[in-house]
User: Fold this.
Amino acid sequence: MARPWSYLKFPYYKPLVDSVENYAAGMYRVGPLARLNVCDYAGTPRADEELGRFRQLAPNGRVVTNGCYYHYARLIEILFALEKIGETLADPTITDTHVRSRARVNQLHGIGLFDPCLSCSTHAVGQMPLAVQLVGSDGGILDEIAR
Assistant:
Protein backbone atom coordinates (compact mmCIF):
# COMPACT_ATOMS: atom_id res chain seq x y z
CA MET A 1 0.00 0.00 0.00
CA ALA A 2 1.50 3.34 -1.03
CA ARG A 3 0.43 6.62 0.53
CA PRO A 4 0.56 9.96 -1.31
CA TRP A 5 2.68 11.57 1.41
CA SER A 6 5.47 8.95 1.43
CA TYR A 7 7.76 7.00 -0.88
CA LEU A 8 7.68 4.07 1.55
CA LYS A 9 5.53 0.99 1.14
CA PHE A 10 3.24 -0.01 3.98
CA PRO A 11 3.12 -3.82 3.90
CA TYR A 12 0.00 -5.57 5.11
CA TYR A 13 -1.42 -9.08 5.27
CA LYS A 14 -4.37 -9.20 2.84
CA PRO A 15 -6.55 -11.77 4.68
CA LEU A 16 -6.85 -9.39 7.66
CA VAL A 17 -7.96 -6.43 5.53
CA ASP A 18 -11.57 -6.03 4.42
CA SER A 19 -10.94 -2.97 2.20
CA VAL A 20 -8.00 -0.97 0.87
CA GLU A 21 -8.93 1.92 3.15
CA ASN A 22 -8.70 -0.37 6.20
CA TYR A 23 -5.21 -1.76 5.43
CA ALA A 24 -3.95 -0.84 8.91
CA ALA A 25 -5.74 -3.90 10.34
CA GLY A 26 -3.24 -6.15 8.57
CA MET A 27 -0.09 -4.05 8.85
CA TYR A 28 3.13 -5.71 9.89
CA ARG A 29 6.68 -4.51 10.43
CA VAL A 30 9.63 -5.23 8.22
CA GLY A 31 13.30 -4.39 8.64
CA PRO A 32 15.98 -5.16 11.22
CA LEU A 33 13.63 -5.57 14.19
CA ALA A 34 11.45 -8.04 12.31
CA ARG A 35 14.48 -9.92 10.95
CA LEU A 36 15.97 -10.41 14.42
CA ASN A 37 12.62 -11.52 15.84
CA VAL A 38 12.32 -14.35 13.32
CA CYS A 39 15.93 -15.54 13.01
CA ASP A 40 17.35 -18.44 15.01
CA TYR A 41 20.90 -17.07 15.10
CA ALA A 42 22.86 -14.12 13.77
CA GLY A 43 25.69 -16.14 12.25
CA THR A 44 28.84 -14.86 13.94
CA PRO A 45 30.02 -15.34 17.55
CA ARG A 46 29.70 -11.79 18.88
CA ALA A 47 26.49 -11.06 16.97
CA ASP A 48 24.99 -14.31 18.30
CA GLU A 49 25.94 -13.28 21.84
CA GLU A 50 24.32 -9.88 21.35
CA LEU A 51 21.22 -11.52 19.83
CA GLY A 52 20.89 -13.50 23.06
CA ARG A 53 20.85 -10.25 25.04
CA PHE A 54 18.34 -8.79 22.58
CA ARG A 55 16.01 -11.78 23.11
CA GLN A 56 16.01 -11.16 26.88
CA LEU A 57 14.18 -7.87 26.24
CA ALA A 58 11.00 -9.85 25.62
CA PRO A 59 10.88 -12.84 28.00
CA ASN A 60 8.79 -16.01 27.58
CA GLY A 61 9.61 -16.39 23.89
CA ARG A 62 7.73 -13.28 22.82
CA VAL A 63 8.94 -10.90 20.14
CA VAL A 64 10.56 -7.50 20.76
CA THR A 65 8.07 -4.94 19.43
CA ASN A 66 9.13 -1.60 20.91
CA GLY A 67 10.13 0.68 18.04
CA CYS A 68 13.08 2.03 20.03
CA TYR A 69 14.80 -1.34 19.55
CA TYR A 70 15.05 -0.85 15.77
CA HIS A 71 18.39 0.89 16.41
CA TYR A 72 19.60 -1.96 18.64
CA ALA A 73 18.62 -4.45 15.92
CA ARG A 74 20.53 -2.42 13.32
CA LEU A 75 23.62 -2.42 15.56
CA ILE A 76 23.46 -6.22 15.87
CA GLU A 77 23.26 -6.50 12.08
CA ILE A 78 26.22 -4.10 11.73
CA LEU A 79 28.19 -6.18 14.25
CA PHE A 80 27.44 -9.29 12.16
CA ALA A 81 28.58 -7.48 8.99
CA LEU A 82 31.84 -6.34 10.59
CA GLU A 83 32.59 -9.84 11.88
CA LYS A 84 31.80 -11.30 8.46
CA ILE A 85 34.14 -8.76 6.82
CA GLY A 86 36.88 -9.84 9.24
CA GLU A 87 36.29 -13.50 8.41
CA THR A 88 36.37 -12.78 4.69
CA LEU A 89 39.60 -10.79 4.91
CA ALA A 90 41.21 -13.63 6.87
CA ASP A 91 40.14 -16.22 4.27
CA PRO A 92 43.05 -17.12 1.97
CA THR A 93 40.68 -18.03 -0.89
CA ILE A 94 39.88 -14.35 -1.53
CA THR A 95 43.25 -14.11 -3.27
CA ASP A 96 42.59 -17.24 -5.35
CA THR A 97 43.14 -16.99 -9.10
CA HIS A 98 39.56 -18.17 -9.78
CA VAL A 99 37.99 -14.73 -9.45
CA ARG A 100 35.78 -14.54 -12.50
CA SER A 101 32.65 -16.52 -13.25
CA ARG A 102 31.32 -16.86 -16.75
CA ALA A 103 27.60 -16.90 -17.60
CA ARG A 104 27.50 -20.68 -17.94
CA VAL A 105 27.85 -23.72 -15.71
CA ASN A 106 30.73 -22.90 -13.35
CA GLN A 107 30.37 -25.88 -11.02
CA LEU A 108 29.25 -29.38 -11.84
CA HIS A 109 27.62 -29.89 -8.46
CA GLY A 110 25.44 -27.86 -6.13
CA ILE A 111 22.05 -26.22 -6.20
CA GLY A 112 21.07 -23.16 -8.24
CA LEU A 113 18.24 -21.09 -6.82
CA PHE A 114 16.31 -18.01 -7.86
CA ASP A 115 14.95 -15.96 -4.98
CA PRO A 116 12.12 -13.64 -6.03
CA CYS A 117 11.63 -10.23 -4.47
CA LEU A 118 10.41 -10.94 -0.94
CA SER A 119 7.87 -8.12 -0.90
CA CYS A 120 6.34 -9.43 -4.13
CA SER A 121 6.22 -13.01 -2.91
CA THR A 122 4.57 -12.15 0.41
CA HIS A 123 1.82 -10.19 -1.33
CA ALA A 124 1.17 -12.95 -3.83
CA VAL A 125 1.33 -16.07 -1.66
CA GLY A 126 0.15 -19.02 -3.74
CA GLN A 127 -0.05 -16.90 -6.90
CA MET A 128 3.63 -16.67 -7.84
CA PRO A 129 4.65 -18.95 -10.72
CA LEU A 130 7.17 -21.56 -9.66
CA ALA A 131 9.31 -23.87 -11.78
CA VAL A 132 11.86 -26.31 -10.36
CA GLN A 133 14.17 -28.32 -12.59
CA LEU A 134 16.45 -31.16 -11.56
CA VAL A 135 19.42 -31.01 -13.93
CA GLY A 136 21.86 -33.88 -14.31
CA SER A 137 25.65 -33.56 -14.56
CA ASP A 138 25.36 -33.84 -18.36
CA GLY A 139 23.06 -30.80 -18.46
CA GLY A 140 19.94 -32.80 -19.24
CA ILE A 141 16.71 -32.18 -17.32
CA LEU A 142 15.98 -35.20 -15.11
CA ASP A 143 12.72 -33.94 -13.60
CA GLU A 144 10.63 -30.78 -13.62
CA ILE A 145 7.79 -29.48 -11.48
CA ALA A 146 5.84 -26.31 -12.33
CA ARG A 147 2.92 -24.46 -10.82
